[in-house]
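In response to a reviewer's request, we include the raw inputs and outputs for one of the modeled complexes. The two entities were modeled together in a single run.
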Amino acid sequence: MEQPKTPEFNIEDLKQYSAPLLLVGVIIGILVVFGTVVYPNFVSIKKSWSETSKNNEQISLLESKLEILNSLSEGDLKDSIERSQVFLPVENEASELISYFDARTAKAEVVLGDFEISQSKLGDAGEIPLDIKITGIRDSIFKFNKALVDSGRLLVVNSLSLDLSGQESSGSSQLTEELTITSTAEPFPELIGSVESSLPQLTTQEQELLSEIQLLQPVIYTDIAPKFPARKNPFAP
Amino acid sequence: MPQQTVNLQRKTRKKPSLVKLQKALVTTVIVLSVLLVTCLGGMLIFKQTIVQSANKQKNRIKELQTQVDALKNNEGLYLTLSARLKTILNLRTKQGFIAELPETLYDELSPYGNLTSIQITESQVQIGINTGKAADVDQVIKALYRAIAKLGIEPTITADSTEIDESGDHSLSLTLVYSSDQSTSNIQEPASNGTAENPGI
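The model returned the following structure tokens for the whole complex.
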């Protein structure tokens, strides 16, 4: 019986594949270099590029901040802050509130009856509720209400109750009005943010208000404008 | 000897497909090599430029930070002033509405009836009014709508009670309910002539 022919292994046949195999090896080598050298460098360059863009943003922010800060006068700022207390005091003080309402009631020719302040919140910043009762003729009461709005200091009337039942057509009878008012105070901040934080631009309304504040008659200030020796509290965690 | 010649010819001959493959591989190697050299060269130059630029930027940032930090007192004062201006504007929008409402209502309604009470909270007004005869009630309601238009609010009006006394006079109790947003968006700015008063100090 005849055996099937098996192909003979010939080393000479294999030799003809050596060149292509070498080229494939070179290609693999190049790809390895791409993977190990080119790609990480590409990533690193990309990262540096985005950092450069961030740095550019930071530079323009700091430049505009510096420009604003250079254009500001420390004296004018202090003066405006101190004058702004006419509208918004730094803290709620009983004596100041009482004298404020005494002056308004006297001017409007009404009698200040009850005057209640939440004791626990006195001297605090923030909002404190006041309950007041006034008595006077109709026109005087309306005058007092108007004075609350026009006189500068920000007092928000939360509720109002006016009893007109006893009035005569001449308007000379005594009427009673009860008001719940919120007095707001805002303390000066002690610290400011980081160097990189941007400065808020004043809106048109804020600029108009600032001009209004700068035109106010000089007043005796309850608190002088703050100083900022540090940006952050060094003892803060 | 003739046999040896035949063997030599067999050795040098390659399959055509192998030749094609080899050509393709050579082309690939050339292309990849050019690409690699270009990439590496480009990267080297680009990286150097970026590093130099980043260093310059860092120096500039440090310089600017020092300059800004030197003006930190101005910055603190500016931030304080800006925050106070915001608070003042915000409070002003809430300030006037309720305080000025009684006078507006009185001016509009008093020609048509006698107001007996006005009670105002943040989003509700209760009015008590003696309107006189039944025919006058309509006049009062019309006047009330005029007052509402003047105030710029869109309330829901409810008649809580109507009483008629022996002489036939009507006493109305009305409630106006409105959104508190309307009261802040339609108020007048307080008069400011630059002479705001000292708060009684």
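As requested, we also summarize the result in words. The first helix of chain B runs from residue 2 to 12. DSSP finds five helices and four strands in chain B.
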